[in-house]
Design goal:
This protein is an alpha+beta fold and 121 residues long. The protein contains 4 helices and 4 strands, in the order H-H-E-E-E-H-H-E. A hairpin with a 3-residue loop joins strand 1 (50-54) and strand 2 (58-62). The protein is globular and about 40 Å long. It starts with 9 loop residues before the first helix and ends in a 15-residue tail after the last strand.
């Protein structure tokens, strides 16, 4: 059974986000922020039509629609943790990340730009 993603303590998240924006984030900060922000995404857009992969820290399924149970899902979005945190925090624009090759999005409903950012400030 997969581990359920849950939002983290806002104080801890805030401190990690400050370190991320200052360029001093440790791997533990990236892991915390990745999982926290994916939990927020799943809460905002529950479902199983899109699989969001942020290796090496987490994978989440979101967005209503066709749910897959085995093999490659119909829609996949993959990116590194820094890109995901930038997108989810509003520090990076989806179109810019896509243009610069910082993310890979394929399949129906894989454009998550309408759901982002998940946090501000």
């Amino acid at each position: 059974m997969p581990v359920r993603l849950t939002p983290a303590d806002p104080v801890v998240v805030g401190a990690a986000l400050v370190r991320f924006r200052e360029g001093t984030a440790e791997p533990a900060d990236l892991r915390l922020l990745t999982k926290h922000l994916l939990a927020l995404l799943v809460a905002r857009a529950p479902g199983g039509a899109v699989e969001v992969r942020v290796p090496p820290y987490a994978v989440a399924q979101c967005v209503e629609g066709t749910r897959h149970t085995r093999g490659t899902p119909p829609a996949v979005v993959e990116m590194d943790p820094a890109t995901w945190i930038g997108l989810a925090s509003g520090d990076l624009d989806w179109a810019d990340a896509e243009r610069d090759g910082r993310l890979s999005a394929s399949g129906e409903r894989s454009d998550l730009s309408g759901l982002l950012p998940l946090v501000r400030g």
